[in-house]
Amino acid sequence: MSPTERPLFHGLSAFPITPADASGRVDTQTLAVLVERLCAAGVDAIGLLGSTGTYAYLARDERRRAIEAAVACTGRRVPLVVGVGALRTDEAQALARDAEAAGADALLLAPVSYTPLTEDEVFEHFRAVTQASGLPLCIYNNPSTTHFTFSLDLLERLARLPSIKAVKMPLPAGGDFAGEIARLRQRTELAIGYSADWGLAEAMLAGADGFHSVLAGLLPDVTLRLLRAAEAGDAAEARRLDGELGPLWACFRAFGSLRVMYVLLERLGLGTAEPPRPILPLGAEARAAVLQAVEPLLSPA
Length: 301
Hints:
Blueprint: E1 11-14, H1 28-41, E2 45-48, H2 60-74, E3 80-83, H3 89-102, E4 106-109, H4 119-132, E5 137-140, H5 143-146, H6 152-159, E6 164-169, H7 177-187, E7 191-194, H8 200-205, E8 210-213, H9 220-231, H10 235-244, H11 246-255, H12 257-267, H13 284-298
Parallel strand pairs: 1-2, 1-8, 2-3, 3-4, 4-5, 5-6, 6-7, 7-8
Helix pairs in contact: 1-2, 2-3, 3-4, 9-10, 11-12, 11-13, 12-13
């Protein structure tokens, strides 16, 4: 089954960084290189302007430029899911309209906040965005950055909104993927995906519909091999591949996957960029650890 034939929000969604200069102007040429690499690899979707894509650090016009560049590159070969999170509801609505007008296939929305939000506030925020655009929308449950955790009751309530079709979940604290997936399936018809790459194998082996991967944004081939093995129920192969990625997962957890991705971008010779300030590039010792972790993955078989 080709990526375009799979249901949306199923399989591997690859999240590339959004290369930009120090003033926040998106490097659309390098972005196009990254997007083309993902299309050629056969990922199931591209997650543009997610957390890895530093959406929160980019102005509205730069976010639109990034979408337009990605759409021009994909040529509709791979579905493009675009992050539209913003502090204000009206801004998120405008971003959703921009994404739809620029040719996005779906939306990803996190409840970005400064003042902690209530469940009613989050529900109304999502409802307003679905009224601004009819594109299918994935709920981004990312408490590590938003400091908001979706309850099962709220997810069930949101799932009744016609255009909300999926949820992107954090790894379950106790590791009980199967139990969490069963509870979500009992209460909603949402496509269930997870993020935090070191949980990819176990999430897919437990029956998740999809995975939203940081690593796939730069190393789609190795990530696809892992996901396809887990999708097929080949636990031994999935865990073997996951073990090979263990040193890199350790770097993700120690240094933050976003910072690691900028090191990998340069190592792969795909471009040069630095994370948006105040995020600083990794120092020499951390860079060396990342390069040591990734080198075996780049060596010829």
